[in-house]
Amino acid sequence: MAEEYMNPAAGALDWDSEITKDDEFELLPAGTYSFKVESLERARFAGSEKMSACNQANLTLILTGADGKQHKVFDSLFLHSKAEWRLSQFFTAIGQKKKGEPLKMNWNMVPGSTGRLELTVNKFTKKDGTPGENNRVGKYLPPQAWTPGQGF
């Protein structure tokens, strides 16, 4: 995605190009899922009435649905003291942070990391006034204790 932004010709189609991709969005039911961080994009949040401008980590997460198909879910983490609890939740989920201990966030280790999360279904109104739904990360979950003989 960043490559396409920096190189406008990347991904560009010709007027006579053949297209094959359909809409890939499939709503997953709310629940607990394992995830893998596919990618991390560093960005800047411009600020709002509730939070001042800060750095932002845009994550692309891969989840596997009950149908065995892989699905992408996007989440943003804000590097702000108001969202520090969420950063702690995420870094605990991927095994970098231990509860009650400080952590210097190692963003280079984030892509490829795995963990568990609680997924929600978010209902919203589209710009055209029609109702819409999408998935959102409700919260990141701490790693589960593994018991020998019980699998993963």
Give a short summary of the structure.
By secondary structure, this protein is mostly beta strands. Helices cover 10% and strands 39% of the residues.
CATH topology label: OB fold (Dihydrolipoamide Acetyltransferase, E2P)
Order of helices and strands: HEEEHEE
With helices defined by DSSP (H or I, 4 residues minimum), what is the helix count?
2
| Distance between the first and last residues' Cα | 33 Å
The first-level CATH class name: Mainly Beta
DSSP strand content: 35-45%
* Domains, number: 1
User: What is the CA-based Rg, rounded?
Assistant: 18 Å
How many strand elements? 5
Instruction: Name the shape in a single word.
Output: globular
Helix content estimate: under 10%
Identify the CATH architecture. Beta Barrel
Strand order in the largest sheet? 3-2-1-4-5
* Helix-and-strand structural type: mainly beta
Uncertain regions spanning at least 5 consecutive residues: 1-5
Biggest sheet layout: 5 strands, antiparallel
Overall mean confidence score, pLDDT: 88
Please characterize this protein's 3D structure.
With 152 residues, the protein is mainly β. It has one domain (26-141): OB fold (Dihydrolipoamide Acetyltransferase, E2P) (Beta Barrel). Helix content is 10%, strand content 39%. It is built from two helices and five strands. A five-stranded antiparallel sheet has the order 3-2-1-4-5. Strand 1 and strand 2 form a beta hairpin. The radius of gyration is 18 Å and the shape is globular.
